[in-house]
């Protein structure tokens, strides 16, 4: 089975981009190891501080963030970094060609209960005229991403990525410390009978989303005409990986708990990379009214309403929001 680096050298013509992806993969091996050790490494539990999102940081949030920040800043080709765990962008090498955005440990509320979490990354071209610490350099729509992917720390540690020519999955063989190619040109089913949403927020959604989910629950007797199953892991990386594997639709819509915010999830380092992967696999990423990859960001921590998955089901959600 082909090793990640060999695959990238055959598949991608941008040697600088290969270096960045390879470095993320290398760093992820240390993160995977610490997650597997858990309590034995003393890395579980709260870090006793909040991040820019006002969320309680876990120790592993901070550790994963520092490993990625330090490891990427060491690359001459990196001009700047932006992280869910960092209030401001981090300027790196003035002559660098790439910007990397990441959620170092998405779903970290699952860490203490030993449920799957992940690292999400997005790579942009660095504008020559802007400093790598200047937020404006990062404010590019998702369709401009050069590459995107995630590392899923589950029963297996998987790296799933795209450089714009299909989606590929690699499994970490921890005996040799290598990511080995497992799945090529992943395609997501256009239809589905499985949805993922946090139902406890039902009363806070817009009527259009309430109507759509009510019709999902009506199954064969309803206008959607089939029985649906539901999943909710509370870890976006796990949900998206399931959808890439067997279809489905993942939703985190606007809700009235924080009416001034368009949604809970972050555009730049959650919705954009996952939407690029999904669209490269034949699926769709929508805010429920427009393509996520077309949204013009106003800040690196912008939030967005998210509907991502099987193309026909995402289109159905959009239809409910047109009416
Ligand atoms: P809730 C994790 O905190 C996260 O950002 C996503 O990974 C996940 O899909 C969502 O939030 C879970 O949110 O409200 O169900 O805890």
In words, what does this structure look like?
The structure is a single chain. The chain has helices spanning 4-11, 15-37, 59-73, 207-218, 236-246, 267-280, 311-322, and strands at residues 46-50, 56-58, 78-83, 90-91, 98-106, 117-125, 147-153, 157-162, 167-173, 178-183, 194-196, 229-230, 249-252, 265-266, 284-286, 303-304, 306-309. The chain is α+β, with helices and mostly antiparallel strands. It has two domains: 4-183, 2-Layer Sandwich (Fructose-1,6-Bisphosphatase, Chain A, domain 1), CATH 3.30.540; 194-320, D-Maltodextrin-Binding Protein, domain 2, CATH 3.40.190. It has an eight-stranded mixed sheet, with helices on both faces. Helix 4 (207-218) links the parallel strand 11 (194-196) and strand 12. Helix 2 (15-37) runs antiparallel to helix 3 (59-73). The radius of gyration is 19 Å and the shape is globular. The mean pLDDT is 97. Residues 106-107, 109, 198, 234-236, 265 line the site of 6-O-phosphono-alpha-D-fructofuranose. 6-O-phosphono-alpha-D-fructofuranose (P6P) binds next to loops.
**What is the ordering of alpha helices and beta strands?**
HHEEHEEEEEEEEEHEHEEHEEEH
Bound compounds, each kind once, are: 6-O-phosphono-alpha-D-fructofuranose
State the end-to-end distance.
49 Å
Q: What is the CATH domain class of the largest domain?
A: Alpha Beta
State the shape.
Answer: globular
Q: Which superfamily, in CATH terms, is the homologous superfamily of the largest domain? A: Fructose-1,6-Bisphosphatase, subunit A, domain 1
Walk across the major sheet and give the strand order. 4-3-5-6-7-8-9-10
* Category from helices, strands and their pairing: alpha+beta
Strand content: 15-25%
Number of E-type strands: 17
CATH topology of the largest domain: Fructose-1,6-Bisphosphatase, Chain A, domain 1
Helix content: 25-40%
Number of helices: 7
User: What is the typical, i.e. mean, pLDDT?
Assistant: 97
CATH architecture of the largest domain: 2-Layer Sandwich
* Rg, nearest Å: 19 Å
Biggest sheet descriptor: 8 strands, mixed
Return the domain count. Answer: 2
Q: Spans with pLDDT under 50 lasting ≥5 residues?
A: none
Keywords: Carbohydrate metabolism, Cytoplasm, Hydrolase, Magnesium, Metal-binding
Binding site for substrate: 106-109, 198, 264
Binding site for Mg(2+) 2: 103, 106, 270
Domain Fructose-1-6-bisphosphatase class 1 C-terminal: 190-321
């Amino acid at each position: 089975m082909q090793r990640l680096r060999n695959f990238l050298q055959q598949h991608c013509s941008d040697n600088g981009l290969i270096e960045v992806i390879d470095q993320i993969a290398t760093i992820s091996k240390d993160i995977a190891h610490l997650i597997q050790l858990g309590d034995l490494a003393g890395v579980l539990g709260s870090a006793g501080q909040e991040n820019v999102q006002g969320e309680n940081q876990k120790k592993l949030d901070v550790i994963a963030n520092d490993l990625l920040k330090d490891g990427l800043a060491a690359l001459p080709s990196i001009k700047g970094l932006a992280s869910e765990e960092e209030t401001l962008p981090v300027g790196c090498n003035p002559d660098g060609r790439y910007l990397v955005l990441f959620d170092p440990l998405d779903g970290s509320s699952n860490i203490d209960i030993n449920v799957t979490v992940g690292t999400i990354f997005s790579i942009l071209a660095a504008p020559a005229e802007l400093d790598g610490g200047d937020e404006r350099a990062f404010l590019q729509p998702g369709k401009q991403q050069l590459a995107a992917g995630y590392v899923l720390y589950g029963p297996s540690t998987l790296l799933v990525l795209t450089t714009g020519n299909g989606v590929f999955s690699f499994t970490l063989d921890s005996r040799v410390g290598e990511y080995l190619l497992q799945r090529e040109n992943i395609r997501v089913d256009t239809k589905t009978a499985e949805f993922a949403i946090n139902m406890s927020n039902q009363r806070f959604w817009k009527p259009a989303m309430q109507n759509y989910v009510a019709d999902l629950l009506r199954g064969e007797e309803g206008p959607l005409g089939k029985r649906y199953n539901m999943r909710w892991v509370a870890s976006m990386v796990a949900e998206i990986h399931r959808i890439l594997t067997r279809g489905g639709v993942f939703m985190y819509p606007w809700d009235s708990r924080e009416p001034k915010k368009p949604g809970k999830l972050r555009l730049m380092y959650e919705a954009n990379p996952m939407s690029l992967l999904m669209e490269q696999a034949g699926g769709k990423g929508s805010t429920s009214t427009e393509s996520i990859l077309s949204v013009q960001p106003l800040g690196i921590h912008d939030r967005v309403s998210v509907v991502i998955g099987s193309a026909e089901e995402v289109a159905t959600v959009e239809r409910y929001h047109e009416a």
